[in-house]
Amino acid sequence: MDFRNFSLHISQTKVNRFVDELAAGKFMATVCKKCGKKYYPPKADCSNCMESDMEWRQMGGRGTLETFTKIYVPPDHFAVRPPLMPFSTIQFEPCPIGLLEVEDGLKIMGWIPKMDVKKIKVGMKMKASPQLLPDGKITIVLEPI
Ligand SMILES: [Zn+2]
Question: Which of 51, 58, 106, 109 has its CA 20 to 30 A from that of 124?
């Protein structure tokens, strides 16, 4: 399986480790060794102090839902719900997507495929998990805890 097919066509960058670790079930952030600023998704260069000496650190996937919205026609690689029509990605049920605030203000965006949209509430406790899709690509799923 090709775990490098994340949502973007990433070939070789200074943050490729992000996708490899995500495939292994870990959320990784980078921390600037000079000023201490943390980045998720990871950055190879600190935009705060322009330093490139970064440290990789695993972060937790549990946090508080900061906001969410509904996507009616998700991109193919994020279509975590089966299509309602054969041979189509058209979905008539909205697919919720949320922003989870985890440690130190870092935020993880992910799909919320297993919940009724009406039951999703800002402020609820959730956990983020990488999920392998049938096509071999990786997405991030949020679930209540
Ligand atoms: Zn810095």
Answer: 58
* Single-letter amino acid code for the residue at 20: D
CATH code reported for the domain at 61-145 = 2.40.50
Whether the CA torsion 15, 143, 72, 5 is positive or negative: it is positive
Question: Which tens digits make up the pLDDT trace of 13-55?
Answer: 777 889 889 989 999 999 999 999 999 999 999 999 999 999 9
Q: How far is the CA of 41 from the centre of ligand 1 (A)?
A: 15
For residue 130, how far is its CA from the centre of ligand 1 (angstroms)? Answer: 28
In the chain, what are the domain boundaries? 1-59, 61-145
The Cα 89–Cα 135 span in angstroms is 14
**Entry pTM:** 0.78
Tokens (6 digits) for 94: 């909205």
Q: How far is the CA of 43 from the centre of ligand 1 (A)?
A: 11
